[in-house]
């Protein structure tokens, strides 16, 4: 029997056995480490990775929405056999030189030769949140908010090397992260795509 | 407190902690893998889009450069890097719209089972309006032996089947195979099929083999109607397309009400220009005032059926044969029109420069195959329902050169169409293919 510990008995004991002490210490360490890991993971995801993914998604969706567009019944259709497909409304399918606004945050374009058939993508503000959002204005001048882009902070259109049928689109999304162990900081994502308007030749 | 209860408590804590950790790990791994898969799918879709674009470009190149335009074709291809890495596969199809003179190229790219479809619309021009130049219902085979003995023709060469060009072949208006809509198929039925005399009573082709036999008529109690309609070689005891062919000329076209001369053509059985058995003709055999002759048999023509030397008024002769029709060194004068129609095959041979060739015009229709061998110069419109073969065979410079130009009369005027051509003969058609320039009709790209 050890001199510093003694076996427990209901009637009274002076200390734990060595085996009990080592086991308890190991388990406690294990639980503390695991808890710390969980905390760190959640914290990282919540305050760092999550916001990055969010701003990246916003910028990416903005680019895809503007460049490829979505199937739009106002743009006409293709019919193959008995199946009719709606055409997309992205600027990639523009048939004439688009017009870029002076603030570079607006682009107007046409999908059909009809001069009245003008569409537009522009950077606007979501009424509910006050955050930025990409808007699509159809040929009837009705604005459609592209909701997955709420949170976008900047949108820029520019021609490339002087070619009016090559458009560079840059979408920027930023988010201020607060509530972390450190001071609040900003995460941002900026994606660009250069579009060759092959219908505009 | 008892010792046993405290030991169990520790185990529960450990197990619970491990469960929480495993749950979190699973969630994070699942989330991470999901992001990876999404990114991969997105990458594949973008790649598939560009692969589809490549397919569309390839199809465009095919349509823009090949001699023969195949509507509704499908090209399947694989994009491979120089180091043999497969990027993806594509399927491209061209779909014409003749009402708007446009066509769509629909190309689908596939990368790792992810698909993207691209559509491009172009405009095209019909660049030919006129009679069929060189046409066939079956395959067409064009062979020019060499530059000195080449095939050089106005065209367009058009086939409802395939067109094969070998050697030195030059077609100024291009060649078009598997054309849509196809060239018509003359049937010679002037009324209800198998009701030759159009009296409304006829036997039905019960087994749908294209022939009504006496046995079929008997089974239907239509023997009397069968006998009335069985006008061609009654001993054959069958009514078929050849019966219609025979009836069309000897009865229908011979009627003054149905021919442009508005006179009895004399080609009914027993008529002055109805021949039974094989016949041979040479220059001078057929008087100038005879419009048409009908031969129930084979016909062989040496040089021409008409007087080709000297002056005189232009001649227009038509020869119909129920069998094969052969002509050696077809020759006539400016303004002449020789029309040859055979139910069987057609064969022509000759050489350029020998008797001058067909300076006038020649029209040929055959229900069978047509073969033109060696050389010659013709203003020709030829349509073979079967296979059409043009082969210079020899290589004699200036002699085995086959030179075909369009017939000179304006066949948009029905009065200029030779008597004897089948009613459905494509005397005036609009065909051809030329992709409109970008300046006149811009291509339209879209992604579905």
Brief rundown of the structure:
The complex is a heterodimer of chains A (201) and B (448). With 201 residues, chain A is α+β, with helices and mostly antiparallel strands.
In words, what does this structure look like?
The complex is a heterodimer of chains A (201) and B (448). Chain A is built from one helix and ten strands, in the order H-E-E-E-E-E-E-E-E-E-E. Chain A has 201 residues and is α+β, with helices and mostly antiparallel strands. In chain B, the strands form five sheets. In chain B, strands 6, 8, 9, 11, 12, 15, 17, 19, 21, 23, 25 and 27 form a twelve-stranded parallel beta sheet that branches. In chain B, strands 10-7-26-24-22-20-18-16 form an eight-stranded parallel beta sheet, with no helix packed on it. In chain B, strand 2 and strand 3 form a beta hairpin. The chains are: A alpha+beta (201), B alpha/beta (448).
Characteristics:
heterodimer; A: 201 residues; alpha+beta; 5-stranded antiparallel β-sheet; 3-stranded antiparallel β-sheet; 1 helix; 10 strands; elongated; B: 448 residues; alpha/beta; 12-stranded parallel β-sheet; 4 helices
Strand order of the largest sheet of chain A: 3-4-5-6-7
β-strand amount of chain B: 25-35%
- Global morphology of chain B: elongated
What is the count of structural domains of chain A? 1
| Helical amount of chain A | 10-25%
- Number of extended strands of chain A: 10
Uncertain ranges of chain A: none
Which SSEs are present, and which pair or pack?
The complex is a heterodimer of chains A (201) and B (448).
Chain A: H1 18-67, E1 77-80, E2 83-86, E3 99-100, E4 106-110, E5 118-125, E6 132-137, E7 143-146, E8 152-160, E9 163-177, E10 185-196
Antiparallel strand pairs in A: 1-2, 3-4, 4-5, 5-6, 6-7, 8-9, 9-10
Chain B: H1 3-65, E1 74-80, E2 86-97, E3 102-111, E4 114-125, E5 128-130, E6 134-136, E7 140-144, E8 151-153, E9 157-159, E10 163-167, E11 169-171, E12 175-177, E13 212-213, H2 214-219, H3 223-229, E14 238-239, H4 241-253, E15 274-276, E16 279-281, E17 292-296, E18 299-302, E19 316-321, E20 325-328, E21 337-342, E22 346-350, E23 358-366, E24 370-374, E25 376-384, E26 388-391, E27 402-405, E28 429-431, E29 434-435, E30 444-447
Parallel strand pairs in B: 6-9, 6-25, 7-10, 7-26, 8-11, 8-27, 9-12, 15-17, 16-18, 17-19, 18-20, 19-21, 20-22, 21-23, 22-24, 23-25, 24-26, 25-27
Antiparallel strand pairs in B: 1-2, 2-3, 3-4, 4-29, 4-30, 5-28, 13-14
